[in-house]
Amino acid sequence: MGKIDRVGVYRWPIFCSLALFVLFNFIQLNMMNVLSVYIVHMFNISALRLGFIGSAYFYTNLIFIFFSGLLLDFFSPKKLVLSAIGISLFGLVFFTVAPSELSLIAWRLVAGITCSFSITGSFKIIARFFSENERGLIIGLIGMIATCAGIISQLPLSYALQNFGIKESFFIIIGIGSASLLMVYIFVPSHFIKPAHHFFEMFRTSNKVFLNFKNWCAALFECLVNLPLFVLGALWGSMYLIKMYHMDGNSAALIISMLFLGHMIGAPCFGWLTDRMNSRKILLLFGSGVAILSVVLINALSFYSTTVLLLLFLLLGISTGTQIVTDAFVVGNNKDGVARAISLLSLVSVSGGVVFQPLFGFIVQNGRTVAAGYQHAMYVLIVTSCVAFILGLFIPNK
User: In terms of domains, do 180 and 243 share one?
Assistant: First the structure.
């Protein structure tokens, strides 16, 4: 990696350009939830077909996360990030100017590929321009922006679609991506970021990253601590609250939004703390402990007030911010393979959503009653939080 390039005129514009890149990609990740109503109406497709189109993003993202880490460690991160933004913009513009089911599928496939470079590429560049005492906070801010994109892609996007239409709303998103492309081109200097190894040393040096026990502990910890977002925040949370607490849809959606708000609070806070504390282990154990307590209390009774549930889901969301501690650990301890190490974390984390979303549904479907099914399914999150706590014991402080 070499020494940190402390160029004051570059560092914060670089951060802003990467933040826009992450915002652009994560808006695309989450916008299908709102866009689905319009897609069904436009193309007269079935729910099954819509599900296939939506999942296209995750399949390409899962496949290319690994390759993005390899490429970013051996080729110019600036050129790869610029290429990713450009390809993503092309897919989005293609669907905007020529809307069809084929262009929609193409856009989702391309978005999944390019998003695999967003977090990995951002962390790779951040590791070069920010010192170890700053990276935790910066990585936390990137995580907060990614979560903010999830919020923007819901109610604000819905408002834009209702008042301006699909094309005009998409051009706003294209504008964010274009601004990111321009800022990365201007502010990220190519000559500061050079490949650390010859390309043919890729597989030999990759062993240090992919066969590292501590990296796998960090990856599994991040996967498990993120499951409330993947399982409750992305799919099952509203249904759980409606069935278990007999809420209406709007109240359930409000409570689930506390998960994302909590993550927005927790990510930069844990990032700031990991920069200033000598013990990462305390933060990991505290975060996973809060997750255990929150899930147990949520699942223990079915007559909490809305205020109590808002607080419990907020605490659960804050606990997911502990993933920033493992991100900072991996970036700091894999100096010759930052991108590959982050791609390992991302790959394992995304795989958790792929596995546990259907597992939760399977348990719900096979319960004696609907309520019993949801209650038993929530035990999965209690167990995974306990496993995360145990994994935290194996992750060193430095």
Answer: no
Tokens (6 digits) for 249: 């849809």
162 and 239 inside one domain = no
pLDDT in tens, 366-378: 888 888 888 899 9
Q: Is the pLDDT confidence value at 18 over 70?
A: yes
Residues 48 and 105 in one domain: yes
Q: The domain that contains 345 carries what CATH number? A: 1.20.1250.20
Q: Got the DSSP string for 337-351?
A: -HHHHHHHHHHHHHH
What is d(CA 38, CA 52) in angstroms, rounded to the nearest whole number?
A: 16
- Look up tokens 């939760």; give the residue: 360
* Structure-block tokens of residue 218: 């960090």
CA distance 121 to 88: 15
pTM: 0.76
Q: Would you state the pLDDT for residue 226?
A: 92
Task: Please indicate, yes or no, if residue 99 is contained in any of the structural domains.
Answer: yes
CA distance 368 to 393: 37
Q: What is the pLDDT of residue 17?
A: 92
pLDDT-based confidence at residue 3 (cuts at 50, 70, 90)? very low
Q: Find the range with the poorest average confidence among 45-54, 324-333, 376-385.
A: 45-54
**44 lies in the same domain as 181:** yes
Q: What is the pLDDT of residue 294?
A: 95
The dihedral through the CA atoms of 184, 188, 189, 190 has a sign that is negative
The domain tally of the chain equals: 2
Q: What is the dihedral of CA 58, 63, 67, 72, to 10 degrees?
A: 0
Distance in angstroms (rounded) separating the CA atoms of residues 156 and 20? 17
